[in-house]
Amino acid sequence: MKLDIVHDLQSVYRKLVHAYSRPGQLANLMKEAAIVREDGNEECPAPILLIALTLFDQEVTFKVLSEKAGMITKTINQLTYAKQGEIEEADYILVLQDAETGALNKAIEKAKSGTLKNPHSSATIIIEVTEITAEPALELKGPGIKTVEYVQVELAENWIESRQSKHKEFPLGVDLMFVDQQDQLLSVPRTTQISENRVMV
Fold this sequence. Notes:
- This protein is α/β, with parallel strands linked by helices.
- The chain has helices spanning 7-21, 30-38, 46-55, 69-80, 103-110, 160-166, and strands at 27-28, 61-65, 83-84, 92-95, 124-128, 132-141, 149-153, 175-179, 184-188, 193-196.
């Protein structure tokens, strides 16, 4: 693998941490994703594989929702030693663009949401989308955001309501990561408040 396990993945990790601590600000994974593509790992989208290589290990369980779930699961397992788990128990759930209709809502609904004693034991859902932009479609507020951030996520599925329902018993909930075809990443922690911007023209 041409990807430098120390240098490149540390760079990805720093970007993930920044995106998580500054919801609404996009992280650019283009440089590292290009190296992954050169390595010929075509089964799994490059930015999603980067996240797996950075965060997964033998203690982690994950579930892939995709038409190519078998191949992607095998690739991630071989590279990270993480184990496949059921959607209700998985630490990470990967929802690819070719997943069946309703897959994201299903993932949000069934994902573990932590406990009051340990809310950090909740799942992280990583979602592949067409594009993420700074258009004012969604309004983000909460920790790490000075006033408000605006984003638009190009995704056919309406997931906002499912997420709101999942977060009724705050601090329980799920963390979301969106990656697009331009290798941009948007992190939406469970502490972030999301609302649709009704005044958008």
